[in-house]
Automatic annotation (TrEMBL), chain A:
Residues 3-82, 134-218 form the Cysteine-rich domain. It comes from Micromonospora avicenniae. InterPro entries: Cys_rich_dom. GO terms for cellular component: cytosol. It comes from the Bacteria. One of its GO terms (molecular function) is oxidoreductase activity. It holds the Pfam family CCG. This is L-lactate dehydrogenase complex protein LldE.
From TrEMBL, chain B:
GO terms for biological process: lactate metabolic process. Pfam families: Fer4_8, LUD_dom, LutB_C. Residues 405-476 form the Lactate utilization protein B C-terminal domain. GO terms for molecular function: 4 iron, 4 sulfur cluster binding. This is L-lactate dehydrogenase complex protein LldF. InterPro entries: 4Fe4S_Fe-S-bd, FTHF_cligase-like_sf, Helical_ferredxn, LUD_dom, LutB/LldF, LutB_C, NagB/RpiA_transferase-like.
Amino acid sequence: MRIALFVTCLADTLFPAAAEATVRLLERLGHQVVFPPEQTCCGQMHVNTGYSAQALPLVRRHVRTFEPYDVVVAPSGSCVGSVRHQHPAVARGAGDERLAERAEAVAGRTYELSEFLVDVLGVTDVGAYYPHRVTYHPTCHSLRMLRVADRPLRLLREVRGLDLVELPQAEQCCGFGGTFAVKNADTSTAMLADKLRHVLSTGADVCTAGDASCLMHIGGGLSRLRTGVRTVHLAEILAATERDGTTGRTGRTAVRA
Amino acid sequence: MSRTFLGMPATAPRGVGHLRGEEPFPAAARRGLADPQLRRNLGHATTTIRAKSGAVIGELPDWQALRAAGSAIKADVLARLPELLEQLEAAVTAAGGTVHWAADAVEANRIVTDLVAATGSDRVIKVKSMATQEIGLNEALEAAGIAAVETDLAELIVQLGEDRPSHILVPAIHRNRAEIREIFLRAMPGVDPSLTDDPPALAAAARRFLRETFLATRVAVSGVNFAVAETGTLAVVESEGNGRMCLTLPETLITVMGVEKVVPTWRDLEVFLQLLPRASTGERMNPYTSMWTGVTPGDGPQAFHLVLLDNGRSAVLADEVGRQALHCIRCSACLNVCPVYERTGGHAYGSVYPGPIGAVLSPQLTGVEDNASLPYASTLCGACYDACPVKINIPELLVHLRDQVPHPRSEAAAMAAAAYVMDRPALYAAAQRAARLSRLAGRRGRGLPPPLSGWTIGRDLPQPPPRTFREWWAQR
């Protein structure tokens, strides 16, 4: 299958390891990955902060960039959520019904990584090896916008060597919320404190999730407190094999001191 | 009788009622965040009610169908509100009640105050009501020399403590039993000075005080949960029985009702009376459902007045996206699942409507410029939308309102610049490189300027990677 990678601006700029892992994983499963270089950002930050007019050209760019591809995959529940639920609305809000329909068509072919693996490729054992104690945080948009449900957990359970430990109150938001994290920094940090408490209570070495944004937030807190617990994107765990060794290429989503 | 509210939609007036806070949400939130008692009470209460509500909702195989029905009935109501209100007016009038139309809080307060004054009573008993809290009726009555006694236990605690409600359903959720004992000892007339903080003892003290008040007061003021247009029947649901007392014992009953509370038919109650208790208190059925239709000779209040309150609701109705906030049946499920509310408490929202629904309703009732920080008081995690029994898409509404609030100039400039760069891939790639090379943020981001410095109060910034993904892709 020929897959267009929707890298997301955050993974492209700050967490390329998650995006590189997505490429390696999909190629290892026998697919061809292409990277349309005209892509930049889906515009979610603008929409969610109250700047949908500024998001309009970004929506138009995203639609134009990914329209030629049969399948689009992103290592992010949040950005896929924006493509599915916000892009058509932004176009309609601007009175561009044609763009809205095109956006809906692109959205219909766009998948978050765990959705793509489980639903489209029909695979849960991706041949990964990751000998660490791991806890999984279901990000809000993957959980409640995309309804990925237990797909990431099903993938993680098949990873050799991985000790999966359940995160208490997993479905509570970590407090990131995009610009919420700076506009309401105190409340955001209070939510993060509880998330960190639960992560630490599991005794896990690694906290994983399907969104680099939430991991940046959780990882930022784990780093500030010098907990020694790392954040690693789900794609990096699924891309890891025995050839990588036990440390190898993993762990690059980590927020390091 | 004025019927102006069907004309030009106005927002709720300033200087009256409780829809506006004194400071923006982030500043007000800090007090709640730093209050260990509040954090403990809210954490305990919301966790308990989430579990209880989840269990009884899980018993219903048709919960999602009920939600869809509730949402559809409310959408229908809003699509033909004027017609339904006139039908309600005719039915209530035919049953011996009197209907008053109040364009805003000022008019509603004046109507109620005049009605009470005409009875000669200097005291009213009140059923817990969000609408009368919204318009500041108690203060208006007090200014006219009329004492208003709240008869819902938690509302009484708030009133005696000269406090503000912090939850739609459990207004004293921020108080513990030791505080309640102190409030009763200080402010409850005739209280036993040996009162302990044992919950049954506290409830008994309130009951003693309230019983005397019920029997000695000739006028009651209530809100309403539902009003049936076809029959003119009003319904109040409650747990304590105080409402039943207020609705049956006095000679005069005055009910203040937000115009969105009307439902078309008696049968529609079937849907809402299943949705409301399960979403609200986590009960299969609430203990008391009181219904009355106008006046029944020789039984219950012999004078009944219904005040239809607009106070910004027509302005909300005028917004096709925003109007779904008027679906709200005040169950407070969204508060109980909100991770922001759970940590800040209700006072942070400034308005009598706290939590996620408050963050979308209050700014619409007042106009967004008067509550500009509220649409941002959410991470858009979506828990409220899942919990809402009438399917109000609160995250969508929050984003919709964020588009309307006045933006800080520096933020607007930064957003415009970001959008400009992001629409030009070459410039975007250059900006990625520049950000990495400049390391403006300093080690772990400690050198960030405000408002970005908010990040580093409790979080490190990631170090920029040696190369971006697109550089890696280009080199492979």
